[in-house]
Queue: 2 jobs
Job 1
Amino acid sequence: MHKQVMGCLWSQFTRALAEKIVHPRFAGVIQPEEALGKNMRFVTGEKKDSLGAIVRFTLLVDEWDGGIADVRFQAFGPPALNGIAEAFCEILIRKNYDQAKRLDAEWIDKQLRDKKDKEALPQETHTFVNLVLDAVEDALQECEGISLPEEYIVTPVQAVFEGGPYPGWDELSQSQQIAVLEQLLSSDIRPYIELDAGGIEIVSLTEGRELVIAYRGACITCPSSVGSTLQAVQQILTAKIHPEIRVVPDHSFFTRD
């Protein structure tokens, strides 16, 4: 099985998966002493399959809010295992440990797709997806006892992933609405903007309907930030949050030096 994945399946890999295999950003290890004096909890999880493939994750989790501040992986096995572990690290950053526990294989596949409607991972790689998920799950078990922010609500991850409108949107407090929007930005919007060295942040939300955003990095000077990119953000939020939500860019950021 592993020899097959190492060989002929390269031709079946998406460009996104191949890029993560060749140019990983999260490969490595976090040492326990890196948590000292930072109010961070060091956690780790490791799994091995019957054919000898091994993946290990080390994470720093903020003791204040349960947020995953940093994550690294070590993988020994076929290239696909490395690419899948890298993709999951990208997803984990900015999540808190409760959100991370509810992520599944579909999120990894989505992260690795070249086309939105075409699955990324061949059947032969599914064992590596499970290996990665199980290793992270082991690490997250060590996060029990860390308090989550008062405004945090247990966002139905699959509901946001599959589409809205978001249930009970108008009954949420403003801080809860912003928390939901932050999760959607992190899962559906930021990964693609960051590919071109851009960024997007929430400035304000008024009555659950008008969302003011600010662009960062390359997005500030990119014409699509008020064109196709803005339209894409608007479409995602109206489809998955509320049909009446309106996205407004903060133009003051476009004039900064």
Job 2
Amino acid sequence: MQRPNAEALGIETSSPNLARNILRFTKIEHTAFSLPLVFAGAWIGSLGQTPPLAVLLLVLLAAVGARIFGMSFNRIFDRKIDALNPRTAGRELPDGRLTVSAALIVAFTGLLVYLAACAALGGWCLVLAPVPLIPLLGYSLLKRFTALCHFGIGLCLAMAPLGAFVATAGHPNFTPAAVIFALFVFWWLSGSDIIYALMDLDSDRQTGVHSLPARFGATGALWVSGISHLFAFCCAVTVYFLTDGGPVAAIALSVSALAMGAMYLPMIPVSMRFFPVSIIAGTAAALIPIFGRYL
């Protein structure tokens, strides 16, 4: 039996654009904006002390691998929906710059990186490694069934700091600070994703995609996201006190609150409310437990 070559798998080895297409497909650069949240979990797990560099590097690899795995399957599952949406029709799978076979190779490469990092961390990290893969694999399917799909992606990222906590603490006995910070991540990203979905309101209604903007309209969706961000702010304040926050942590808390508030300013385009405004809110909040006991 003849083995399929790279071209048959949809990988054009002679194409100078292959690496660029893969990077765009996985949005690998966006991983940098989730890393502060992951590292915050690591700091909480180490009781405010700086975690060992080797552990942080393995946590970094696990985060990158998990994100590549989740993003790749998200794009694979949504390729037909993306093709119907003018905003996403130019993505790599809908316009043919990357095939499903090639996308699967990228996805399983990310999975291998994630599992290898968890194996190197050992202990509970390896035992619990399969748990985050379930929401990562299935969150993008929720938009086919429920308008609450935005909370699926919030759940995915909320598990990241908890995983980093286990990596540095060596056990899954989560402290109140770890749980509350994970809840911050859940409410912050879920609310931000609702705002992000405003860009696809008309397309979602035409194609039958479930989302809160499509279900309740822009005003109703903004109310839900606003409540979510209010919960996120309360969680951030709680983390501030649980981690003995000082002046720098207070500044970070203030920046996070102001950024979340800015997401509701009409003069800011919706695309900018998610990136970079929402990212600023999340990154600033991640600095609260990192700097809490230091400055």
